[in-house]
Amino acid sequence: MSTRIPLTIEGNITADPEYGTAESGLEYARFSVAVNDRRLNETTGTWEDAGTVFHRVTAFGRQSRNVADSLRKGDTVLVSGDLKFTNYVDKQTGTTRESREILADTVAASLKFTGVEVNRSPRVNGPAADATGPYSAPVYETDADLHTLN
What we know:
Elements: E1 2-13, E2 18-21, E3 27-41, E4 46-60, H1 61-70, E5 76-89, E6 96-109, H2 143-149
Parallel strand pairs: 4-6
Antiparallel strand pairs: 1-3, 1-5, 2-3, 3-4, 5-6
């Protein structure tokens, strides 16, 4: 049984992302995000850590390459995706267990405490946008060409 719940989290990456390619050719990046819960202690007036929750995250496709190339341990990220719960049987004990993982739709560096440089891909306009090879030029037919076909 599998249940998915949409969510967004903000936290710190706990280790450099692991990048790989599945047998099917699908690229993926796996990493863990620690989300710290901070609470104001009303007695002392100071902020205190109230617990940390660790989430396993998997990103796919082109985004997985960008995650692996751009993000490192300690970076603060925002992750938006589906929280997936999966039941499995532990091979050693035979008991049913539950795992959870976020299947990321979007992974972004947080700008709360640092800046980020964005490298954009160039946009293509005009005939080059429809080019299928190294060079594409329009083909024009003239009346003379049409008369020679008859």
